[in-house]
Every structure is written in C-alpha cells, then in structure tokens.
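Handout, section 4.2: multi-component inputs.
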Amino acid sequence: MEVADKKVALFEAVIALIEDGVDINSLKVSDITNRAGIGKGTAYEYFRSKEEIIIQALFYDVGRRIEKIRRLLRQNMNTRDRIFTIFQWMETDARQKSSFTQLFQMATGSFEFSNSLKEKMDSQEGYCREINEILMAFVEAGVKEGVFRPELAPALQRTALVSQFMSFVLYFHQEEISESVSVEQMKEFLYGNIMKMLG
Amino acid sequence: MEVADKKVALFEAVIALIEDGVDINSLKVSDITNRAGIGKGTAYEYFRSKEEIIIQALFYDVGRRIEKIRRLLRQNMNTRDRIFTIFQWMETDARQKSSFTQLFQMATGSFEFSNSLKEKMDSQEGYCREINEILMAFVEAGVKEGVFRPELAPALQRTALVSQFMSFVLYFHQEEISESVSVEQMKEFLYGNIMKMLG
Amino acid sequence: MEVADKKVALFEAVIALIEDGVDINSLKVSDITNRAGIGKGTAYEYFRSKEEIIIQALFYDVGRRIEKIRRLLRQNMNTRDRIFTIFQWMETDARQKSSFTQLFQMATGSFEFSNSLKEKMDSQEGYCREINEILMAFVEAGVKEGVFRPELAPALQRTALVSQFMSFVLYFHQEEISESVSVEQMKEFLYGNIMKMLG
Amino acid sequence: MEVADKKVALFEAVIALIEDGVDINSLKVSDITNRAGIGKGTAYEYFRSKEEIIIQALFYDVGRRIEKIRRLLRQNMNTRDRIFTIFQWMETDARQKSSFTQLFQMATGSFEFSNSLKEKMDSQEGYCREINEILMAFVEAGVKEGVFRPELAPALQRTALVSQFMSFVLYFHQEEISESVSVEQMKEFLYGNIMKMLG
DNA sequence: CATGAATGAGGGTTCATTCAT
DNA sequence: CATGAATGAACCCTCATTCAT
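Output:
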C-alpha cells in the first residue's frame, strides 16, 4: 500500500500540474516530484522513466473517471437522464486540460510523446475500448428503451452521440459562446440534437 | 521575395515533417532546415526562435487551407453542395496529422508549446475567427436559402455544424469504423444529421 | 564475532562478483549487499564507504591466498617442487579475474579507484611486501639449496622468478597459446627458464 | 582535416589526463573537453559517447606507439640491438600509466569499461595481433640470425621474450628495486635472461 | 547574406549514502 | 543493531542558439 501511495502521489502531481495548465510535453521530473512532495530520485524507485510516470498518471486518471461514469450510469434511469448524467460528468470530470482531453488527443493521434513508447500507446486503446463499450451500452439501452431508432447501425448511433458530447467540451473552450449561451441551454440543445438524430 | 521564399521553404518543411508523422514537440531545428534544404543558421535570419518557425508554419498552412475552402465556397451552390464541399476539403486538406488537427488541439487548449509564447497563442484566435466567419456565413446562407431554421441562434447552428465536421475527422482516426462504413456513407449520415438538427 | 561475520560476508560477496566477471568499477553497493544477503544500510554499519568495502575485500582475499601459499611452502621441499607448488596455487587461486589479477593491476598502477583513497593504496604495499618476503625467502632457500647462483643480487633473482610467474598468468589469458600448449608443458617450460636464469 | 584535428585534440586530452594519473574510469567528459580546450557539446559532434572518445583515444595512442616501435625495428640491426631498442621504446613510450599499460590490462581482461562496448573490445585484439606480429617477427629474425634456438616453438620463444619486457615495466613500478639497480643494469640483466632462455 | 561548427544550459537518470523505523 | 525507502549530487547527453568565416 505504501508503494501504491507513492505512485498515486506522483500521479496526482502529474494530474494537478496538467490541470494547472502545464503542457504535458514540458513536464519535468523535478516539477512532478516537487509537487508530489518527494525527492527526485524517489520517482525512479517506482518508475523506470519520466514517460512511464506521465503515461501511467494519465491512465490512472482516465481510469478513475471512467469508473465514475460507469458507476453513475449503472443507476437505473432513462436515456434523457443518462445523457444529462454524462453532461454533468463532463462538466466536473472531463473539462479543460484534464486527462480526458489528453486522451482525446491520443485518439486523434497527435500525442506521440516518445517513439519508444508506442507500444504502451496501444494498450491505451484499452481505455478507448472501455469508453466505446460504455457508449455502445448506452446506445443499446436507448434502443431497448425505444427512444433510439433500432435500424440505425450502432456505430453510427455512437458517432452521433459522441459528436454532441464533443460539442459540449468545445463549448467550454469557446469563451464567446459560453458567455451568450448558458450551460443548461447548451445541454438542452445538444440533447435535442441527439434525439433528432437518433430518435 | 527572396526572404519570403526562405520563410516558405521552412514552413513547407515543417508541414511536410508533421505530415510525415513527426510529433510537433520533437521537431528539431536541424530537421526543419535540412528538409528545407537550407543551413541551420539561416533559419535564425528570418525567425527569432524555433517556436516562431513552427507556429508561423502552422498558421501559414491553416491560412492557406482556409483560403482554399473560402474560394471553394464562393462558388454558387446550395447548402448540400457546400456541406459536401467541406467534407471533400477535409478529406484532402484537413486529414491526418495536418495542421488542421494541430489547430483543433490548439482549440482544445492543450497545445501550449512553451510557456513564453502564450501571447502568440492569442493571435491564433485570429484564425479561429476566420473559421468562425466562414461558418457563420455558411449558416447565414443556409438560412437565406431556407434550409436552416431561422429561429435557432446562429451560434447554436454553428455548434451543430461543427459537431458533424468533427465527427468526420474522428472517422478517419477510428480504424474500426472506417473499415465498416464507407466514406460516402459517412458523409451522407453526417449530412443527414445536420439537416435533422438545423432543417 | 558477529561483526566479523558480516564483514566477511560482504568480502565474499565482492570476491564472488568479481569472479563472476563483474568489473570492479561497476560494482554497486546494492549488488554487494544483495549477494551477501544483508540489507544495504547494514554495510554502512561496518564500513564508511563502498570503496572501503571493496578495497578491504581485495585485501582480505589476497591475504587469505597469500596465507595459503605460505602454508604450502612451509612444507619441506626442494626448489623444483616449490616452483610447481606456486604454479599449482596460481592455477587454482590466482587465475582469472581474481583479486590476484586486481592486485597485479594495482601494482602496475592503474587501479586508482578514486582520488580520495590513494592513502589506502599505500597500505596495499603491505601485501606487496608480504609477497616480496615470500619471494625473497624463496630465493634464499634456492641459494641455500645450491640450485640458485649466490652471486646474483636477490632482487634480480626475484625479478627473474616473477617474470615466469607472470608469464603463467598471461598464459591463461591467451586463448591462442593455451590451446596449442598444455598447462604441463608450459609449467615445464617456465621452470626451465627459471633454472636457466638463476641456476 | 579540421575534423581530424578536433578528434586528435580530444585524444591528446584523454592521453594527457591518463598520464597525469587520472583513472580511466573516472574521466568526465567535461574534464576531457576542458583539457582539449573545447566546449563540452563539441565532443558530441565527433563522437557518439564518452566511451567512444576514450576507447578511440587509447587505440590512437597505442597505434601511434606501435607504429613507432615498428619503424625503429625496421632499421637493420642484430638481436641485441633490437632488444635494447624495445627497452628504450618502453622507457619512453610505454612507461607508467600510458595506454600501453591500459592495453596490458585489456589483455588481462579486467578493463570492462562498459557492457555495451564489448564488441569494440574485440577489435582491440587487432592491436594485440599487431603486437603479436611484431614479437613473432622478432623471434623469427632471432632464429634466422642464429641467436635463438630454432627447435623451440615460436609461441614459447615469444612467451620468454614478453616475460622480460614485462619485468622491465614492473621495474619502473617498484621503487625499491629501481633505487638499488640502475636502468642499464636491469636492461643487461633482462637481456642476459632472454639469451639464456632462447640462446 | 548563408552557413554550420561550437557552445553550454538544461534535464533525465543513477546510485552512494543517510536515517527513521 | 538492521533495514531499505528516500534522497540529491553528479554526470552524460541533447539541441536551440550564436557567430566567425
């Protein structure tokens, strides 16, 4: 447990730094360990390289957040509530410079980080797959509930869903629109869009 | 003009390297100048730092592509044709690791590059505004044409539009779906979504 | 006694590692203590530094081996038998990467180990003196026995002796010759050389 | 040629440091470049690693010295003169902590330096072979001249020769003997030994 | 102007040593 | 006492930037 504690302390430090706006590519080991309140050398008792720390930190964070949304969605509710639950979750957990954004960038392929760690990047798909599973379950439940059209290919339904969730992320990054449209209005608009596309 | 030539040569080199899959954060000055076929020191005759080169290169590329889509959209056509024109443009110009993707990442905020250059990042909004203008003109034309509902706030119409364009980018990054759904099917699906949301 | 046991355990570990082919300059404290089966910190209860451990280990090993050859040579025998006894001893005790080789390298001066420990290096001459005593006693006995010429300065006689013993060490390091000449042939050749030089 | 100059400057710096008594294993890149009068980074324009610098420096030095002894031995002379020529050469070129000593230690196998460069160590045998060739030519010439017994296997003749040359090196490292026996006396003694063994 | 050789600041990593348990 | 987790000094190497030619 001690070991896990130290690892987690480093993870939290990485996440905190990212949320503070430090670019992932300019994170220094000393920054991380200082933030974690431990010595520079100590990090190497638990990880073999800086990259290992950062990547595992991202995975740790994303995993934690995915677990959370999973738990939230397990509660019985209808599709509308589920969609708003996801909006709520994104608002608190997947906003800004969080590791969710990092993940998204991984998905678009530009997060290379280092040539030697592409292998690890593949296991990242593990999380993509997890997210995908959540989305597919979401789609399935919507169909079962009778609010999503069953004849539409699930992959396309998922695409439509994701498009509105991405819009929600973008909303937070566009000062201009977030000033003229309230969060609640935006949620209703996006929800309406989903229903128009899939209903 | 000589000067502009050298600058452009450097820009093209940066763009070529990015399209070759080199991560933007691991671009080296020597790589860029070698690719541009000029001496390493020469780059510093025209730019004050590596970051200046790269950022201006991205802007150069994005600007050129925006100019292209502007020109394409100036041709008289209906909304459907305009949407497919944009799809077409994205397919050839904004695919992969292009500067469009980079721009998108700038938009989501994680492309910091360096703490000392945040100021330059702000001028990036210049391009965002340009893109925004294009989109707003697009919306306006759709309304004028009678295919987009006029009562919907333009900012929301734009959001809906962008969501489907983003989905198109994502489509190219998801092997799983790009294998089961053809590009044409996806275009039709996304077009349909736009019409459902805005029509 | 406990204390001595721990020290000896560390010495044996150092010697074992050297005989395993680990370079003396890349020995790590953790390697040594792991091999000795004790905790890393414990080593510092008995020694002030890594270098102290290693140097003392070498001395311990060399001292033990010298004691052995002393004992062997105390048995009454003639010069020829004594020479072959030394060959035999070298074959089993002073071969390979043993501390004898290390000692030899100390003698040729290149084993510095660290600038701060030159003082300790001087005490190393203690062992040189011991070896020297053995050799001088050897020479004296040879003269007394009447097989070594008495008119030759003992220091020179010793030089001649050592030259053939060194050749024996070298023999083990030259695959080319150790394949074409058997150990016994080599011993006879070197013995003959000694007699030619000193007889 | 410029390039070669820089390389040679680094080689000379390494050699000078070694002759100053700095241990080969504690040479720092900054020491070397400071001594060579160039910037630290510059070394990496010509070599890929510190080890490459040091190893090539040793080879450079040994090669140069071997070339010198070759040239000296090419002059027509009898065996006695050749032996004294080698003594002379050792006195000026192969004394002390020179790269010759380093080479000798490589030969006895304890110069590991680094695990990743064992391959290069094999090419070191190139020099061993060169030295061997010189010695074998020496033996052959002695036999042809009629001063070395032809019936003795060349490998054994070489062993005998080397034993006395090694004794000469040792002589310089033993204050005790170098104080009581003059260099010339030692040379005559060792020469006499060679003739007794091989004549 | 154009160059690329030279530079050195900066950062990742190792490992001897310490000290709280 | 014994331990091994924690530490940070030390060092190799990279690469953006400079400047003499």
